[in-house]
Amino acid sequence: MPGPGRMKFDRKGGMKPQIKKGTFKRVLAYVKKDYGKQMLVITLCIVLGSVASLVSTVAIRRLIDNVIIPGMSSGLSEVWGDLLGIIATMGAFYIAAILANLLRGMIMAEITQGTLMNIRNSMFRKMEKLPIKYFDVNPHGEIMSTYTNDTDSIRELIGRCIPSLIESALTVISVFTMMLVYSLWLTLAVIIGIAGIVRLSAGIAGKSGKYMMGQQKSIAAEEGFVEEMIEGQRVVKVFCHQEQAKKDFDALNEQLRNDSTTAHRFGNILGPINNNMGNILYVLLALFGTLMVHAGVTNVSLSGISTISTGIIISFLSMAKTMTQTIGNLSQQVNMFTMGLAGASRIFELIDQETEKDEGYVTLVNVTKDENGAFIESEKQTGLWAFRHPHTADGSVTYTELKGDIVMEHVDFGYTEDKQVLFDMSLYAKPGQKIAFVGATGAGKTTVTNLINRFYDIADGKIRYDGININKIKKPDLRRSLAIVLQDVNLFTGTVLENIRYGRLDATDEECIEAAKLANADSFISRLPEGYNTMLTGNGSNLSQGQRQLISIARAAVANPPVLIMDEATSSIDTRTEALVQKGMDNLMKGRTVFVIAHRLSTIRNSNAIMVLDHGKIIERGTHEQLLEMKGTYWQLYTGAFELE
């Protein structure tokens, strides 16, 4: 069985995830965007290294033909000047190449880390624009894997593979040119041999690339599972699920092993094959060149027609070795290259996700009133807000005071097209009213609140906010006008004060403390080791569930919105704490439109209206007393004749 809350994806026999075309081009675009000039310097450093290599090859020929062979007959003193000249030239170029490589290493580190920073920025910016649905359907561990494993694979791609590609390309071009200058016949032999090596390498590399994407997927799946198990250790241990969790992990780990083994198997055999093929080519060239020298074959090259010399043969063998080593080095990069492209594909898959749509044009602004009572926009915080509604027909602008009047008219909704969740839902909430939702799990209570803040958009019907269709209101402005207190509290690394201020970033310390007092959180916060400056880590793990919820309520209080949504906010709080919270909530709710989802019916008795939901429909509505008189589902729930599931 798969672990809690997860699905297993069996890829056996199915299509392997593919690296999308254009992925490498997009990686290069990131590099070029901010580091084009630096890459030019890197290229010049690589050119200098290639020139040094060529100089050594030319020097070998001169050393043999102009120094060693003549020196054997005339003596070393006759060729001493040429020898010193050759050594000085080689030394100068090699020293320059060493300095260029040092500079290249330092600049490449800056390019690599800077590009990764830009890629992570792009990922995070896109993630912040994605709809809630994306996070509902994608395991968080897999999303985290794109920030860790996939970016690390791109680091290898940029830091090692790209410079290797440039270096290899320049080496091949320069060496091939020199080969043509030395001998067309030997060059033709090299071309035939290397063509075979390249064809073999391409075939093996293609097979490796097919499985690298699968490996990255398996890594993400395993990390997602591990993260889930860490978060759910209490549940795992309470229900003695350790052995099953081990089996599930073993299955994922085995899948990762299989994918990684298959992916790396092809890449790991490339190096030995290419090296041996290169050695065979070297021996054959040496034999062919020796036969040419002894047979007195006329040498044809770009520099002219001449008799082939021993220096040419030895220099040519050096160039052939350089050529095959270059191809061998490229083959060693195949695994990193394909893994980097696989990681980049997953990252770009996130970056290419469709952002949350927002066609709204009505905004929320601070306003004051003139002597005639008309609204005027204000740059200062006035405490008075209004929706700014521009009209394209005549260019006029109207202002609607933010009050919290919400109406749902015949709303239909489904999370997927084939599964409807809400059916013909209609309700209204006047400013200052408290509306409660009651019903079994899956009845649609939380869905209603998700539609009010437009985490999801309705399929049919209308939702009006102060008389304005919420589809016309820009989502950030809509969400600024309401606050949510969820059952599952999320606190962030920082002080208690900073977590309360999360509700409104420009709130002063005094306003945050007042919000805590309003939520009845000030008492326990004052008893913390450093009071409001106490650091919270691990989602507030050093606090009780009730204390964490009180901070969450204080966070909503400091936002001071006209609309408040309480999604089973007291379900995890003990009875004593609930009494404190309820008092604070009553203070917080004054003058606000409040939507409450609760299993504890005691928390909603004073609601202006209670909606009883069943399978996405409102089956009963009324006040607490009216519903008891009806002796329907609510009466059964309240008297204990029926329990919520």
Rg over C-alpha atoms, rounded to the nearest angstrom: 36 Å
Basic shape: elongated
Please work out how many helical segments DSSP would assign: 18
How far apart the termini lie comes to: 25 Å
Number of strands: 18
Helix content: 55-70%
Average per-residue pLDDT, rounded, comes to: 82
Q: Can you summarize the main beta sheet?
A: 6 strands, mixed
Helix and strand content put the structural class at alpha+beta
What is the quaternary state of this protein? single chain
Poorly predicted ranges = 1-16
Strand order of the largest sheet: 12-15-16-9-17-18
Proportion of beta-strand residues: 5-15%
Describe the structure.
The chain is α+β, with helices and mostly antiparallel strands and 645 residues long. The strands form 5 sheets. A 6-stranded mixed β-sheet has the order 12-15-16-9-17-18, with helices on both faces. The protein has a 4-stranded antiparallel β-sheet with strand order 4-3-5-6. It has a 4-stranded antiparallel β-sheet with strand order 8-7-10-11, covered by helices on one side. A hairpin with a 6-residue loop joins strand 5 and strand 6. Helix 13 packs across helix 15.
